[in-house]
Amino acid sequence: MIRFFCKGAAVGSCVELDKESLNHARALRVREGEEVELLDGCGTVWKGTFGKEGVRISSVREKDRQTPEIILCVGITQGGSFDDVVRQAVQMGVSEVCPLITQRVAINFENKRLNNKMERWGKIAEEGCKQSGLAWLPKIKRPTRFAEAVSAYGRDRNIVASLYGAITPWKELKLGGVHRIVLWIGPEGDFSKDEYEALLAKGAEFVGLGDAVLRVETACVAVLASLRAILS
Fold first, then answer.
1. Which burial class, exposed, middle or buried, applies to 112 when counting CB atoms under 10 A from its CB (0-12, 13-18, 19+)?
2. Cis status, amide bond into 169, omega within 30 of 0
3. Contact, 150 vs 139, CB < 8 A?
4. CA 145 to CA 6: how far, in whole Å?
5. pLDDT confidence of 224, banded at 50, 70, 90?
6. How far apart are CA 46 and CA 44, in angstroms?
7. How far apart are CA 22 and CA 27, in angstroms?
8. What gap in Å lies between CA 94 and CA 124, rounded to an integer?
9. What residue spans of the chain are helical by DSSP H?
10. How many CB atoms sit inside 10 A of residue 108's CB?
């Protein structure tokens, strides 16, 4: 199923696609009369047929947001690897990605450069929704200092991927009735001792990912997959 984003539509109407979507359709060789879907990122999905004038809408449905909501707080990585973090996290169904500035993150974005990155991450999130058929577009937050994130999410159910300390087996996590889960993954070099203690003070549970030390983007997929397995 080929998908595009739109701001709204009514059954029977014809939605004109923007230039970027039309170029995407040409690249995918979408044919006239082929069924496609339109998403607004807020739970609405329209089905219609592709044509020269746009997409003729035939039906509409609403999708509830998945529960529990999953928020990924992860240390910003160097280079373009955070693009992969966003891309994979969106495909795994997170509702929010919070890039963390921690004690071991030595990245200082200039405003223009950060705005460019935010725009890129937003487009990656949209592409992930279209690829995966997700009706809700995840929120990609601006880079947030660790202490601010701990304060913001401190009352939620917090789960930390940890290399050290007492580890709770995944199968022993009790998540019934939980509405929001915040997953914490450290940057390259991991969280500092003080940061681990700050999470512990908020009642966070620590889980492991085996003996191997994983790259940040790999750890994100492993944690999200493990969580999905026990929620299913």
1. exposed
2. no
3. no
4. 33
5. very high
6. 7
7. 9
8. 14
9. 19-27, 81-91, 111-132, 146-153, 193-201, 216-231
10. 9
Q: Which phi and psi angles does 34 have, rounded to 5°?
A: -75, 140
pLDDT of residue 171: 87
pLDDT of 31 reads: 94
Instruction: Encode pLDDT of 160-211 as tens digits.
Output: 998 776 688 888 898 988 999 999 999 988 999 999 999 999 999 999 888 8
Q: Contact, 2 vs 49, CB < 8 A?
A: no
What is d(CA 51, CA 60) in angstroms, rounded to the nearest whole number?
18
Query: pTM of the prediction?
Result: 0.91
Residues 172 and 231: their CA atoms lie apart, in Å, by 12
Q: ∠ at Cα 179 (130, 74), nearest 5°?
A: 60
Q: Which domains does the chain have, with CATH numbers?
A: 2-62 (2.40.240.20), 69-231 (3.40.1280.10)
Half-sphere exposure (CA, 13 Å, Cβ side) for 15? 27
20 within 8 A of 55, measured Cβ to Cβ? no
99: nearest Cα among 107, 135, 67:
107
Question: 211, exposed or middle or buried, with CB in 10 Å at 0-12, 13-18, 19+?
Answer: exposed
